[in-house]
Amino acid sequence: MPVQPTIKNRRTSTVAAGESKGAWRSILEQGSHLLQTSAPMSGFDVYVVGFHCAKGEPDFQMEAHHFCRVVNDDVLQCVLFDGNTKDANLIGVEYIISGRLFDTVPEEERGYWHPHNFEVLSGELVAPGLPAAAEKALMKQLMNSYGKTWHTWHTHSTAGHEGMPLPFGDPKLMWSFNRDGEADEAIKQDRNTAMNVDPEKKRAERQSLLELARPQWGVDDMKDDFTGTTPVPGVVDIRAAQG
């Protein structure tokens, strides 16, 4: 179980293909514990859970557990899993940069980076186990930020897409949801029930962050891929804002 007892276990639904663990594993673990290093993984202790969809593929959605290291005030590096227990599968990576840094990237690079304001203001992105004040401070830091996310393994079965027993195919560039009604309700409800998340309460608590919101690139990139959606205050595409 997670070290923090207030964090609800979220187990993967996919067991990797292959034979059961052999005796070699215990020998390897003993040797690596004594002689090797895990230093590059030190500090990946900021834990957030949200939802992604593949860019241009609105039905290709999944829950993503981010374990992040804060490099500095402008950069986070995240390793992505499909759960938070020791049997969770590694499914991808996400790099997060501040809006200030995003303004410096080449124009041809912008299409790889999804905006985060909806994830924060909607209450859908959560940091399990953090006290409310600490979680809100983290979400404030994420306002106006962007993420570049590649999923290498789609382990969840959703909307006709079967969970994969191995990481087949090309990596997929993932995108954020930017309006109410885009993320599959069943996926959201499954996460919220299992982890005791109340996104509406979090949305209300984060309304004070609305004044920080700036128009962002990419908010409308998948606008026409969904129907029956509702805009959220503070989540505006920069091109729409500029007329």
Characteristics:
21% strand, 243 residues, alpha+beta, 7 strands, globular, 7 helices
N-to-C order of helices and strands: HEEEEHEHHEEHHH
Shape descriptor = globular
Strand content: 15-25%
Number of helices: 7
Mean pLDDT: 91
| Spatial sequence of strands, sheet with the most strands | 1-2-3-4-6-7
* Intertermini distance: 50 Å
Helical proportion, percent range: 10-25%
Protein structure class: alpha+beta
Q: Flag low-confidence runs.
A: none
Q: What is the strand tally?
A: 7
State the major sheet.
6 strands, antiparallel, barrel
Q: Give the oligomeric state of the chains in this entry, treating copies of one chain as homo and distinct chains as hetero.
A: single chain
Radius of gyration: 18 Å
What is the fold's blueprint, element by element?
Blueprint: H1 24-35, E1 46-54, E2 57-72, E3 75-81, E4 90-97, H2 99-102, E5 114-115, H3 117-121, H4 132-142, E6 146-151, E7 172-175, H5 185-195, H6 199-205, H7 238-241
Antiparallel strand pairs: 1-2, 1-7, 2-3, 3-4, 4-6, 5-6, 6-7
Characterise this structure.
The chain is α+β, with helices and mostly antiparallel strands and 243 residues long. It has helices spanning 24-35, 99-102, 117-121, 132-142, 185-195, 199-205, 238-241, and strands at residues 46-54, 57-72, 75-81, 90-97, 114-115, 146-151, 172-175. It has a six-stranded antiparallel β-barrel. A hairpin with a 2-residue loop joins strand 2 (57-72) and strand 3. The model has no long low-confidence stretch (mean pLDDT 91).
